[in-house]
Design brief:
Length: 107
Amino acid sequence: MPYEPPTPPANLPTEILSSLNESTPERLRDVATYAEALAEHKEREARLEEEADQDEVEERPDDLPDDVPAKATITIKEINDNRYYYWQWREGEKIKSKYKGPVNPDA
């Protein structure tokens, strides 16, 4: 029975697959070593970012509503010559807002 080459992952882009198929065994080993080190680096960076996000959540302002993320900032909007505070944050490509209160509550 003849030896069969390995089956590549289905999600591997064609240009990478072609480049790997044209590479020498030595280069393939170098690529494998680099790819493993890069994967570990990216996983470590993601963990550090996640830990930083969790630290930010712990520093949640007292007046922040439960349905507003800790990363939200306060923005002032002017409507009909009146100024209002809004919590504002990004969810993907969209900017979300939630009413906080008037800038001058006595006015």
